[in-house]
Amino acid sequence: MHSALDGPHDMDGSLFFSVGEPSGDLHASNLIDQLRHLDPQLRYRGLGGARMAASGCEIDYDLTQLAVVGIIEVLPKLREFFRVADLAEAVMKRERPSAVVLVDFPGFNWHMAKRAQRLGIPVIYYLPPQLWAWGAWRLKKMRRYVDRVLCNLPFEPDWYAARNVEVEYVGHPFFDEVHARQLDARFLQSWRDHDGLQVAVLPGSRTREVEKIWPMQLAALRELGRRYPRTRFLVAAHRDAQCRACERLLNASDRNLNIEFFVGKTSEIIALCDCALMKSGSVSLEMMARGKPAVVAYHATRSFYAIGRCLTRLNSMTLPNMIAGETVMPEFLAIGSTSKTTGQIIAAMDRLLGDARAAQSQKLNVLAARYAQPGASRRAATAILETLTAPTSRALRVSA
Question: Where are the beta strands (DSSP E) in 281-336?
């Protein structure tokens, strides 16, 4: 099977984007900004969100409003997903873009890749699905429908290359955003002065995970507050409703707990803290970039864990640990009941509030110096332009 990039292609100087999550909307908008800087003549359109629109992309459908997790959330919206896919295919057929750029959102984007390939349009996957973690059987789709993968984690290139996928490591755009983010100086100043340690508490950004993680975190905070009465806990909520839900779980016995709640101040709280108790997720990369020690907690039902054990090959769910190839941030998974895991979290936080912070911080700083540098968006933009201008030497697709 020959690549859509092999031989001449009728390039009209446009890219079609397919982006389905708010985080992808942000990463894609930064990518478009870099592309516009490198090639002012290129045009952009596709599926995305408000940030991409602000960067000059013509949005055919705001796909970020359909962002879902899991089959239960997908099913009610399945008809709309197919309608959007048909709409996008019609646009691609009419406009004949130079390439289709997929950003994360694999459930939907596999369909977009297949339709683009059927039209003979090259496909570039930026922020690809973590096939090395789960779903390795989907490598056939990647080889068949995707011409080039722009990967973001340092161990991914060898994994993809060993499986005959055209790949380039560009770094993670999350670090671009951390580097460029302007912190609220007034907030930092008002909360900086404290005569004890400050612990960031990050319960997550999705409501379902907050509902599972926060009770476990709160149980740990109660014991840690008893042991360390001068320690202040700064809870960084993602939304107002989530913040209120966390506050409602406090009871009369918590009146002496030195705890404060905030919304929309996650980066500031990370910058302020001495260490953190956090939910596993991409925010761990910001902790790494800022050299902040942390203990990571996450939760799974027994049935979900049983399925996950069959599908995944991971010893860690925390990105800095994956990057390091060792446990830098202690992590604990609660399966069903949380009591045992809460005890483990308390013990790990006890060490972190004692003498373990410096060693973990040093390891994180070493990782950050090597991997947390900005420039991923620009490197991805350069790789995309190279793919368009030198297709025969830059892309390879093999039969699955």
Answer: 294-300, 331-335
CA distances from 150 to 23, 57, 96, 147, 391 (A): 17, 20, 22, 10, 15
Question: Would you say residue 48 has pLDDT above 70?
Answer: yes
Tokens standing for residue 187: 């907030």
Average pLDDT, the chain: 87
Under 8 Å between Cβ of 375 and 171: yes
The model's pLDDT over 78-108, given as tens digits with 9 standing for 90+, comes to 678 889 999 999 999 999 999 999 999 888 9
DSSP string, 329-382: S-EEEEES--HHHHHHHHHHHHHHTTT-HHHHHHHHHHHHHHH--S-HHHHHHH
Residue type, 337: S
CA–CA distance, 152 with 393 (Å, rounded to integer): 22
CB burial string 362-384: b at 16+ within 10 A, e below: ebbbebbeebbebebbbbbbbbb
Strand pairing report for 259-263 and 275-279: unpaired
Q: For residue 126, give Cα distances in angstroms to 24, 131, 209.
A: 10, 13, 26
Yes or no: say if 236 and 202 are a contact pair by the CB < 8 Å rule.
yes
Place of tokens 């320690």: 231
3-state helix/strand/coil string of 85-109: HHHHHHHHHHHCCCEEEEECCHHHH
Give kind and range of the element (H or E) at residue 61: strand 58-62
The model's pTM: 0.81
**Six-digit token string for 15:** 């890219």
- How does pLDDT run across 243-269, given as a tens digit for each residue? 999 999 999 999 889 999 999 999 999
Rounded to whole angstroms, the Cα distance separating 44 from 52 reads: 9
